[in-house]
Predict the structure.
Amino acid sequence: MHMLRAFAAAHRNSPTLTGFADDLPCIAGRLMQREINAYKPRYKPARPYVAILGGAKGGRFFRVAQNLINRGVVDTIAFVGVVGNMILWAKALTSEKEIRNLFEEH
């Protein structure tokens, strides 16, 4: 029997890891089990869950946001940086007072 101890090593294409898989039963060790369990909250986050997206490539971030919404991963998305400014500009909010009012409403 071959035991893979750590998640970080499990994906490596090394003969010491993959060479045994064809000939011996493989199991995950306790460290790998703890590492996998540590990721579980990412798949079912506490609600409400807010994603913060920002950057210069607006098209990509809108696709990511749409995917997160369609899959029910997030409840709210906050766009920041260039993307956030584009949204404010599209809503024709140009003054600091208008922007503050928008945040006070929500």
Observations:
- Strands lie at 2-4, 26-28, 50-54, 76-80.
- DSSP finds six helices and four strands in the chain.
